[in-house]
Amino acid sequence: MWLFGLFKQGRILEKGTKRRVKKLGTAFFVLYVLVLVYLLFFSEGYGRVADAEREYRYNLVPFVEIRRFWTYRKIVGTFALFTNVFGNVLGFVPYGFILPVITGKMRNGFFIILSGFVISLTIEVIQLLTKVGCFDVDDMILNTLGAALGYGIYAVCDRIRRKINGKKISICICKKKRSFQGKMVCRTCGGFPRAVYRGSCACTLF
């Protein structure tokens, strides 16, 4: 019975950790959304245009604004270059990283990238209609890149987590075994048995 006790204890510890991570991730995500909304629609130092300068502005040609800020980086300054190019990428990295952490339904890379693009498009349309900013296709490209980068970081971290946690507490109870180079191997997960209890193998998941 020790095998089942070990399995149950590991599952309880893993679930408790996941709940704490999800709660913390949710809090960070709410804070992130509030900060993003403030910067894009209320902060004149970053996204909002002064009332006296409000007019319909847009750029529909890809990479025009990116090239302009990079070409004239010495004139516009480091801050303008960072906020308009790198800032648009970094601004959506938390979206691609935190969202898959707090909900299992958002762990598809394609969906994260597509939803990041849709949200960026929505923001640009609102900025155009309210005249608080410029509808810029370059912003959409950079925002989508940021969401993809965030998901990439999540995927790498999740893979490392699975390897570490799998070796420590995640075990597989399976009666289907086969011989591989003289050793018993689980047919389900492919792991080598750590112990055998009444014909069931406890395999490390990789």
Description:
The chain is α+β, with helices and mostly antiparallel strands and 206 residues long. It contains seven helices and seven strands, in the order αβαααααβαβββββ. A three-stranded antiparallel beta sheet has the order 3-7-6. The chain has a two-stranded parallel ribbon with strand order 1-2. A two-stranded antiparallel sheet has the order 4-5. A hairpin with a 2-residue loop joins strand 4 and strand 5. Helix 5 runs parallel beside helix 7. The longest helix has 40 residues. The protein is elongated and about 55 Å long. The two termini are 24 Å apart. The relative contact order is 0.13. The N terminus and C terminus are likely disordered.
Q: How many strands, what sense, and barrel or not for the largest sheet?
A: 3 strands, antiparallel
- What string, H for helix and E for strand, traces the elements in order? HEHHHHHEHEEEEE
Report the sheet-strand fraction. Answer: 5-15%
Please compute the radius of gyration using only Cα atoms: 24 Å
Average residue pLDDT: 77
Q: Alpha-carbon distance between the termini?
A: 24 Å
Unreliable runs: 1-13, 167-173, 175-182, 193-206
Number of helices: 7
**What is the β-strand count?**
7
Structural class: alpha+beta
Shape summary = elongated
- Give the strand order of the largest sheet, numbering strands 1, 2, ... along the chain: 3-7-6
Helix content: 55-70%
